[in-house]
Design brief:
Auxin_biosynth/cation_transpt, 8-stranded mixed beta sheet, 2 domains, 5-stranded parallel beta sheet, FAD/NAD-bd_sf, about 425 residues, CHP04046_FMN-dependent, 10 helices, Putative flavoprotein involved in K+ transport
Length: about 425
């Protein structure tokens, strides 16, 4: 057993401990305050640290501002169809926090959560708490992913993870190979491209989305046809859905779609998925065209969903020209010498993993993912918030986090009532 900073007798008990003060944790706090449930929010950094410190300079929302729906605090600006920049997002979340008095403790790192008897012990670097309920709202972006073979790359080639990228000047002179085509990867590639940097792209299997289609933003159409209300339980393969990469597009400069074929046509050199590295040799899978085709398939699938909805509802909407592949690879390079190609840096954009090492409760599956139903675990008293597809597509975003937080807090209030009745 670890040695606690405070003696057990000095522990502080609250009904609920919330771990994490991002939009999920603070939404939970809002509803806990409304319900009159005593609680504390423990945050290892400062609230909304990820928005303030872990985003690049040109970062903006990919979804339009109208989808920002924190509890009783929808977007109230004058550009609902625009895309807030990083500083505007911080202003928005801080404005939400100003609407209530959260019992927040910043600079407190949770090191252990364990069920002892009927209560949870929550050990931190600032003391020991106990609670009847624990809400885990720490997010899924703790551990940046790099493949094992990255360690075999020539150390003269700099390796930067997307979490550390802020601006093109962070990247060493020379050619940068961006690895990964999720939302961060394509936007960081574009950031470097706009800055006139020599950049190349290793293309993974991420899907892409239209931005503006048949007179409206594609996300507006998807909301209207009910896509965002579909729950994880309604998906044909929930586990596969949870693991999917987000569709890539951009909110930059008013929003636009990203067709990597157009970049290639204009001179961007692209490869397939990175398969291995050794010294200055980088190897790729011969899947570039397959990955581009897969991205286009998802893009066309969304267009078809919108077309079907327009036809079904008899909506008068402008027609769009058919999609054209403006470029395709004649051959695929499967091995390059980075030194000979002038590649001086790798920008890894292949995702993150959560860190639940401190959570000593039987609530994770063999992949380390939480076992829950809309954030409520079978392990009584443990809850999760803020994860992608916790309940719907919007669960990990401003769109759906409030509804999930309200649902979890309602469950806590009901259990607290049952416990009081039972003890009475």
């Amino acid at each position: 057993m670890p040695v606690h900073p405070l003696k057990p007798a000095a522990r502080t008990h609250v009904t609920t401990v919330v771990v994490g003060a991002g939009q999920a944790g603070m939404s939970a706090s809002y509803y806990l305050c409304q319900a009159g449930i005593d609680h504390v929010v423990l945050e290892r950094h400062a609230r909304f640290h990820a928005w303030k410190a872990d985003r690049w300079d040109s970062f903006c929302l990919v979804t339009p501002n109208w989808q920002c729906k924190l509890p009783d605090y929808p977007y109230r600006g004058d550009d609902p169809t625009g895309f807030m920049l990083k500083d505007q997002i911080v202003d928005y979340v801080e404005g939400f926090c100003a609407t209530f008095d959260a019992p927040l403790r910043e600079g407190v790192t949770v090191t252990r959560v364990e069920k002892v008897g009927e209560r949870f012990e929550v050990d931190t670097d600032r003391g020991l708490w106990s609670a009847d309920h624990v809400i885990v709202a720490s997010g899924g972006y703790d551990r940046p992913i790099t493949p094992p073979f990255a360690g075999r790359l020539d150390p003269a080639i700099a390796q930067i993870h997307s979490k550390a990228y802020r601006r093109p000047s962070d990247i060493p002179d020379g050619t940068c190979l961006v690895v990964g085509t999720g939302q961060s990867g394509v936007q960081m590639m574009e950031d470097l491209w706009i800055a006139g940097r020599d950049v190349r792209l290793a293309v993974g299997p991420a899907p892409r989305s239209p931005r503006w289609y048949r007179g409206r933003d594609a996300t507006d159409w998807l909301h209207a046809l009910g896509y965002y209300a579909i729950t994880i339980d309604q998906q044909p393969d929930p586990k596969s859905t949870e693991a999917k990469t987000n569709h890539y597009m951009s909110g930059r400069d008013g929003g636009h779609e990203i067709d990597l074929r157009r970049f290639a046509r204009d001179g961007l050199r692209m490869y397939g998925s990175v398969a291995d590295m050794e010294g200055t040799t980088i190897r790729f899978l011969p899947d570039l065209e397959a990955n581009l085709d897969a991205a286009d398939k998802s893009y066309l699938g969304i267009r078809q969903m919108i077309d079907d909805y327009i036809a079904k509802e008899g909506i008068d909407a402008p027609e769009e020209p058919p999609f054209e592949k403006v470029w395709r690879p004649e051959t695929e390079e499967i091995e390059i010498d980075a030194a000979a190609e002038g590649i001086t840096s790798i920008l890894w954009c292949i995702g993150f993993r959560p860190n639940y090492d401190w959570l000593r409760v039987d609530c994770l599956d063999d992949r380390g993912r939480p076992i829950h139903r809309r954030g409520i675990c079978a392990a009584e008293g443990v809850y999760f918030l803020g994860l992608g597809w916790l309940h719907t597509w919007g669960s990990g975003r401003f769109l759906g986090v409030a509804e999930d937080a309200e649902h979890v807090v309602r469950a806590i209030a009901e259990r607290a009532t049952i416990r009081r009745v039972g003890s009475g």
